[in-house]
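Practice record 12: protein with NAP.
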Amino acid sequence: MKGQVAIVTGGGRGIGKAISIALAKRGVNVVVVGTNLETASETASNLQNIGVKSIAVQADVAKHADVKNIFDSTLSEFGKVDILVNNAGITRDSLIIRMKDEEWDRVIDVNLKGTFLCSREAVKAMLKQKYGRIINISSIVGFMGNIGQANYSASKAGIIGLTKTIAKEYANRGITVNAIAPGFITTSMTESIPENIKNEMLRSIPMGRFGTTDDVAHAVVFLASPEAGYITGQVLHVNGGMYM
Ligand code: NAP
């Protein structure tokens, strides 16, 4: 994978940062995308220290113009894009009867529309190369549902339909499209969950531990590798057995 180019949305922190580091360790040059340029730039410096080229691009993946800029910057800097990891994601939790329209819209816009916008640009670039790997970060709750997360669960379930459709559209053009559905991974996204709920969740994980960001990153590296070339339209569950 040495010399390949990856775009990782939300690559500045959390799972996205672990994915960026894991790809860099395989020699992949990484474009780190986030709304916060400072964290994205810090991660890009970390990757340069590993020995690859890396740039940070400030972008809101829900905005078409921002997404266009991610790809323009990538192509002018590196001339190609081999791997896209749609990892940027947010939550705006609330029971459905109290969920505001804006909470619904923003989560769908960032998680689902962002994945669509980035994938559309990536496919255009990848078609020219006749090679590409798109990996979409879904979630266990897209399969199981979760109280308080109607918007988030719907966005993550939507990502599965999107993944399978793009996979079918470009399977014969060297582009694979897969999803990863992480279970409960310790990051800032899960920090605010009350201790009693966390303990309850822990009891439902057969492996008896929460996942790490590296658990997800290793799965991404596999799906991004040339060795995974005959796998497309699939969902890889990384959840310690929480959902089978
Ligand atoms: P996190 O620590 O909150 O990180 C979220 C990342 O998304 C940040 O890098 C953030 O960058 C970026 N982001 C948010 N809104 C964005 C936007 N509009 N445009 C561009 N980037 C944006 O969350 P995480 O736990 O690492 O989650 C990463 C992905 O894994 C998400 O898709 C999440 O849904 C999924 N996931 C997480 C878990 C879990 O248990 N943690 C489980 C299943 C799935 P900025 O701060 O720069 O905006």
